[in-house]
DNA sequence: CTGAAAGCGCTTACAG
DNA sequence: CTGAAAGCGCTTACAG
């Protein structure tokens, strides 16, 4: 069987340094009441033995693990790699480590959350467009702070950091009308995702109010390049002036379909707007007009919300809404002056 | 200050179930010697109280945390999001949780590794093209199993799972010559990364041996779409028949540069081969000929290597080399029959 | 500033 | 199969 790992404990360090285990503990606690001399003795001994405090044992006492659970549901998002990286780095800077948990068909949200709970994470960041009342209830019950990122349901009694999708819908409508477009097709993925619903509704509200333009079709369950390209078979029959997609990848697919399969010129024959400002979207022939999300801010706000909540559980939860910009490139016509 | 979390402990469950804490512990240990009746009583009480064993306390005794550290250095790789997801899911299936650690300019490898060590991770998976002898030495010293993924240095006394880059270089050369190309330009990123060196060397060895063809230039420190596109300014002067890139993104940039900035037709005027088979590479006009890496296998092998090592530390480390396929699409000419 | 002692929540020989 | 007891490695009042 497994050979026993011979761990270096505070006892060993204490003995070598000629002090008590309390002193060793204090030497590793910032601002603890230890003399500089003791601290130095301990540090030398610790270095010699390769000692690091056992966080597990510590957390048993302090009831803090310095562990943050990162729950991610929507892995299709092409930004997730860099998002993950940034979370991990920024949390590390705040002295937290990141425990990753995945949600998918096989492992449901309950399993994941229970895993995280067993590890006594100090808090949870949930990245998902899906609502999760059960999750929030469970966390509140266990007094584990959680912040919901990118989930647009506001009634929940917890911290949320969101993109203001209503504003996006309105801005999109204003821009579209301004550019002279009147016949629209909207495309999005999962039809139940709140953010897409909000954008679509606020878009159409503006259009109705101004009594200009018309949404010819509202296509759903279309996500990603290939589905976008395939969707052109339907779109071509509808013949819109502008196609607005819920993802840059979908938009790029639509453009490929339009150009390659139907020989359209973009934006002359048809304009396209994406969502997300994927790095790809500015490449070569793509030059996609799209919505640029405040990723960095989303991350920063969610981390600071969570940490604030961890340190002051009695504070009321914050609900933050972030604004986005529209980047105008070459898949929509230029504004006439 | 922080309100005390009122934790449910095994003591509470024991009391409610009318058994000892030992019994509670056993009820949560698979194959422990408990009667079915006791186990059921415990389960009912646990459910009623919302009890989950505290993994931190458990790990103090068992010396196993069921935590795996995932160290990632090369975040440019566009596959990292899905790689991360798969690791997390597969480890979860094996009853491990993933702790993420990042390496970058700010947080060096030592800081990250010490973080992981403090959390007493049972093992570490290091995803990086960079060599890391120090890391391996440190892990061996602490008896923490580590497997190096995608790092081609073989002498290290640890488990490694790699792509066989020599084979790729040879296959690339054979294909290139077969297709009738003779004048090559090679492009890669960081010139010190072993995998790129190996591919380049084995490629040129084949060419020299066959006394056919010539590498006109070996460009380094070029990575990603934009740098690839810019590199066309130099490439156009060299006028190669085939450009071989160390990344699909670079290749796509070269193609954009060739088409848009220099009006070349691909592959008629110049052929391009990428590396990695990024999903983008099969899209629309891209249709990139590229090297398809065995991602899934890389992940599976590294996990099983690590778990084997965790369970049997005395076993000698394995060094696994995986083979890759070349996907021929439309950025190279077709083979004449 | 310092150390002895208690205790965090768990598991595991041990004895029955 | 079961429970009392010891102990994992740490921190933190407490008394000095």
Largest sheet of chain A: 6 strands, parallel
Number of strands of chain A: 12
Mean pLDDT of chain A: 90
Q: What is the number of helices of chain A?
A: 12
State which percent range the strand residues of chain A make up. Answer: 15-25%
Share of residues in helices of chain A = 40-55%
How would you describe the overall organization of this protein?
- The structure is a homodimer of 337-residue chains.
- The first copy, chain A, is α/β, with parallel strands linked by helices and 337 residues long.
- Helix content of chain A is 43%, strand content 16%.
- Chain A folds into 3 domains: 10-53, 434 Repressor (Amino-terminal Domain), CATH 1.10.260; 67-163 and 295-323, Rossmann fold; 165-293, Rossmann fold (3-Layer(aba) Sandwich), CATH 3.40.50.
- Chain A has helices at 10-17, 21-27, 36-49, 55-62, 80-93, 109-118, 133-141, 165-178, 194-210, 225-238, 248-261, 295-311, and strands at residues 67-72, 97-102, 123-127, 146-149, 159-163, 183-187, 214-219, 242-245, 271-273, 290-292, 319-322, 325-327.
- In chain A, the strands form 3 sheets. Chain A has a 6-stranded parallel beta sheet with strand order 2-1-3-4-5-11, with helices on both faces.
- In chain A, helix 5 (80-93) links the parallel strand 1 and strand 2.
- Mean pLDDT of chain A is 90; it is low at 1-5.
- The interface between A and B is large, with 69 and 69 residues.
- The structure holds a DNA duplex (16 and 16 nucleotides).
């Amino acid at each position: 069987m497994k050979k026993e790992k011979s761990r270096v404990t505070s006892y060993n360090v204490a003995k070598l340094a000629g002090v008590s285990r309390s002193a060793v503990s204090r030497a590793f606690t910032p601002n603890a009441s230890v003399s500089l001399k003791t601290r130095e003795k301990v540090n030398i001994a610790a270095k010699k033995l390769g000692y690091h405090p056992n966080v597990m044992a510590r957390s048993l006492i302090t009831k803090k693990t310095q562990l943050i659970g990162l729950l991610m549901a929507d892995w299709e998002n092409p930004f997730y790699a860099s998002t993950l990286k940034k979370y991990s780095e920024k949390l590390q800077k705040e002295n937290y480590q990141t425990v990753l948990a995945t949600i998918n068909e096989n492992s449901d949200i309950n399993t994941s959350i229970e895993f995280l709970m067993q590890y006594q994470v100090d808090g949870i960041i949930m990245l998902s467009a899906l609502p999760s009342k059960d999750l929030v209830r469970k966390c509140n019950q266990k007094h584990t702070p959680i912040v919901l990122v990118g989930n647009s349901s506001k009634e929940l009694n917890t911290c949320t950091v969101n993109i203001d999708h209503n504003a996006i819908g309105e801005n999109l409508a204003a821009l579209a009308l301004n550019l002279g477009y009147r016949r629209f097709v909207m495309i999005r993925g999962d039809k139940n995702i709140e953010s897409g619903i909000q954008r679509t509704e606020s878009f159409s509200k503006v259009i109705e109010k101004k009594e200009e333009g018309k949404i010819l079709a509202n296509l759903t369950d279309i996500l990603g390049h290939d589905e976008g390209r395939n969707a052109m078979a339907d779109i071509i029959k509808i013949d819109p002036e502008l196609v607005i997609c819920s993802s840059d990848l979908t938009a790029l697919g639509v453009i490929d379909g339009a150009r390659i399969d139907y020989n359209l010129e973009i934006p002359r024959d048809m304009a396209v707007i994406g969502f997300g400002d994927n790095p790809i979207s500015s490449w070569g022939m793509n030059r996609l007009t799209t919505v640029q999300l405040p990723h960095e801010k989303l991350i920063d706000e969610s981390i600071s919300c969570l940490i604030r909540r961890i340190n002051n559980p009695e504070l009321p939860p914050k609900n933050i809404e972030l604004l986005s910009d529209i980047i105008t490139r070459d898949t929509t016509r230029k504004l006439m002056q």
